[in-house]
């Protein structure tokens, strides 16, 4: 909402967290600081999107094709507007404002 309103927003910089086990034979483990958002069918997990709607025995090749096509089409909309001379920030703010009802935040 701050970004759509044109306010300055800070960049994303996750904090590093370590999980100590309290046992000398086990080294502390680095754990992700972001919420994995287990309620979303397509959550962002730090450096990747995860698709969780398919069962373990299902082939996801068609699902991936459809999702990649949707993503490519969305990027084309942005690229066309930027190449036509619009400012990238203004384009992304407009798209978020227009489609915010579709954004799933858990």
Automatic annotation (TrEMBL):
- GO MF: catalytic activity
**Matching InterPro entries:** Gln_synth/guanido_kin_cat_dom (IPR014746), GS_Type-3 (IPR052725)
Q: Fetch the SUPFAM superfamilies from UniProt.
A: Glutamine synthetase/guanido kinase (SSF55931)
Q: Which PANTHER family does the annotation name?
A: GLUTAMINE SYNTHETASE (PTHR42974), TYPE-3 GLUTAMINE SYNTHETASE (PTHR42974:SF1)
* Record's protein name: Uncharacterized protein
């Amino acid at each position: 909402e701050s970004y759509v309103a044109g306010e300055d927003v800070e960049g994303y910089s996750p904090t590093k967290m370590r999980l100590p086990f309290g046992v000398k034979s086990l080294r502390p483990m680095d754990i992700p600081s972001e919420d994995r958002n287990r309620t979303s069918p397509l959550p962002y997990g730090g450096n990747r999107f995860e698709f969780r709607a398919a069962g373990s025995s299902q082939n996801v090749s068609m699902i991936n094709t459809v999702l990649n096509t949707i993503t490519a089409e969305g990027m084309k909309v942005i690229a066309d507007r930027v190449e036509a001379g619009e400012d990238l920030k203004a384009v992304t703010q407009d798209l978020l404002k227009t489609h915010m009802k579709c954004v799933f935040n858990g």
